[in-house]
Amino acid sequence: MASPATNEELGAVFDAHVHAEFVERSVDTTMATMTDAPYVTHVPVLTGGHGYDDVRSFYSKWFIGRWPDDVEVTQVSRTVGQGRVIDELIVSFTHDREMPALLPGVPATGRKVTLAHVVVMGFENGKVSYEHIYWDQASPLVQVVSSIRRSCRSPAPSRRASCATRRCRRTS
Q1: How large is the C-alpha radius of gyration of the chain?
Q2: DSSP-assigned letters across all residues of 59-90
Q3: Extents of the domains making up the chain
Q4: Could you tell me if 105 and 12 are in contact, meaning their C-beta atoms sit under 8 angstroms apart?
Q5: How far apart are the first and last CA of the chain?
Q6: Alpha-carbon distance 166 to 1, whole Å?
Q7: Residue 161: is its pLDDT beyond 90?
Q8: Residue 117: which region, alpha, beta or left (left: phi > 0; alpha: psi -120 to 50)?
Q9: 9: helix, coil or strand?
Q10: What CATH number was assigned to the domain covering residues 7-170?
Q11: Rounded CA separation 78/118 (Å)
């Protein structure tokens, strides 16, 4: 049985995994950071896969290489312990292509998107065994969908808006 990895080693594997996804854009390199039976769950849209073949298929068809060229991933915080790395990340990009893993069915809009993520990554024997990835799905939709007007989000009680229909209406 392999000895448990140190917190620093787990953090390095996390970083190598993200680098393989977003910088190298390599399914093979990404999968090399994972166990033989990993799973990935993008919680807001329930995409991902269970088991090596499903995860590899998800990465190759829906995720890796499907992000805009200008994608940037910025770490805000990291917690490591009990065989897990939990990162809070800011991911920013220009929505210049369809992104089925993040915005299924939404065509490219050319708009800039900045999106907070929380990634919970578990490890077995120094390799990624699972990823649970969280974000607020309303955030990218509000940033890319042009039909949403700012007045619909006004918090001022005197300017409350009803967006039950596609047209915003002022209500009292």
Answers
A1: 19
A2: IIIIITT-S-TT-EEEEEEEEEETTEEEEEEE
A3: 7-170
A4: no
A5: 67
A6: 59
A7: no
A8: beta
A9: helix
A10: 3.10.450.50
A11: 10
- Could you write out the three-class secondary structure of 115-164? EEEEEEEEEECCEEEEEEEECCCHHHHHHHCCCCCHHHHCCCHHHCEECC
Q: Look-up: residue for tokens 């990935």?
A: 40
Polymer length in residues for the chain: 172
Q: What is the pLDDT of residues 21-76, one digit of tens each?
A: 999 999 999 999 999 999 999 999 999 999 999 999 999 999 999 999 999 999 99
User: Where does residue 9 fall: left (phi above 0), alpha (psi -120 to 50 degrees), or beta otherwise?
Assistant: alpha
Q: Any residues with CB less than 8 A from the CB of 110 and at least 6 apart, and which?
A: 94, 95, 96
Helices (H) and strands (E) in the chain, counts: 4, 8
Q: What is the dihedral of CA 18, 68, 71, 58, to 10 degrees?
A: -20
pTM score, whole prediction: 0.81
∠ CA 21-32-126, nearest 5°, is: 105
Amino acid, res. 140: P
Two structure tokens written together for 10: 């787990």
Strand partners, 114: 92
φ/ψ of residue 150, rounded to 5: -55, -35
